[in-house]
Amino acid sequence: MRIAITGSTGLIGTALVRSLRTGDTSRADGPAGGHDVVRLVRRAPTAAGEVRWDPKRQEVDTAGLAGCEAVVHLAGAGVGDHRWTAAYKQEIRDSRVLGTRALASALAAMDTPPRVFVCGSAIGYYGDTGDRRTDESAPAGHGFLPEVCAAWEDAAKPARDAGIRTVFARTGLVVARSGGAWGRLFPVFRLGLGGRLGDGSQYWSFISLDDHIAALRHLLDTEDLTGPVNLTAPEPVTNREVTAVMGKVLNRPTLFSVPAPVLRTVLGEFAADVLGSQRVIPQRLLDSGFSFRHPSIMEAVRAAAQPSTRGDTP
Fold first, then answer.
1. pLDDT score at 36
2. DSSP notation for 287-311
3. How far is CA 129 from the centre of its chain?
4. Which residues are registered as beta bridge partners of 82?
5. Residue 291: how many other CB atoms lie within 10 Å
6. Number of separate helices (H) and strands (E) present in the chain
7. CB count, 10 Å around CB of 274?
8. φ and ψ of 227, to 5 deg
9. pLDDT tens across 196-213, in order?
10. What mean pLDDT is reported for the chain?
11. What is the spatial distance between Cα 296 and Cα 294, in angstroms, rounded to a whole number?
């Protein structure tokens, strides 16, 4: 299959490209490789398999996407990469909404559009859910991230209207050493400086990098899946439980904690999301027959801590 990917140099994109090209050799029942991957880049293409696009100018070289049966859209500015100034909040929104709108409109206009469009999204859609178990039937929450996620998904309307099977991968916290929010935790805990955030009672909905890549491929291959699908492990855990597991796996003390007022001072508005609770369940993924390799937080952290974890690097 010929598959186009945006955000191919990020944590998830890099692992997905590797999986599509080489397959999952670490498990007997893993998905096969051998796919032709097209990488959408925002500069002039310099290698075979690269196609130019410019989200801000709403431009996509659709000629380079000819023959693609699927498109996976993962590009977007990092939510926790910078303090949430007004300018950076606009960048977070624009990078998702403008990019999705440009891509969806371009795909819809193709003579032979792809069969499936897997568009990145996030469980931030639900806002703070407290200790309530939340699946894909829940409405959007309130606040900046829910508003961004709702607009992000709405921007894919041209693809849906054109009859392209469109799936929104609402991603949780990806457990990996080499990037993302969790990648910042590993060095801190290895130094023995890790601890709970706030009172530690907030739920974290996680997923291992290995399971996330397998789930994305499941979305590509499962013809009756459309709309939102939560990419999280079946049993969310509290930040206090995460702290204990990180300490146990890395064999380090977890004596420190970061009080909520300190987080608010350091992180600003983003602290509300760090301290917020999301107990999100992947109901549609489970109903579709997907099998998790690392369903528990202990399994996910142990997998990420191993140098041989597929798609993750030291």
1. 95
2. HTT---S--SHHHHHHHHHSTT-TT
3. 19
4. none
5. 11
6. 11, 14
7. 19
8. 80, -160
9. 999 999 999 999 999 999
10. 92
11. 6
Nearest-angstrom CA–CA distance, 224 and 118: 13
- Rounded to whole angstroms, how far apart are CA atoms 171 and 221? 18
- The domain spans of the chain are 2-305
pLDDT in tens, 128-157: 999 999 999 999 999 999 999 999 999 999
More confident: 17 or 30:
17
Which pLDDT belongs to residue 263?
66
Exposed, middle or buried, 224 (CB in 10 Å: 0-12/13-18/19+)? exposed
* Topology, domain 2-305: Rossmann fold (3.40.50)
CA torsion sign for 196, 198, 203, 206 is negative
d(CA 288, CA 125): 21
pTM score, two decimals? 0.92
The Cβ-side half-sphere exposure at 290, using a 13 Å CA radius, reads: 30
Residues 6+ apart with CB under 8 A from 138: 126, 129
The residues that bridge with 120 in the sheet, in sequence order, are 169
pLDDT band at 314 (very low <50, low <70, confident <90, very high): very low
Structure tokens at 268: 């600003």
Q: Rounded CA gap, 190 and 254, in Å? A: 10
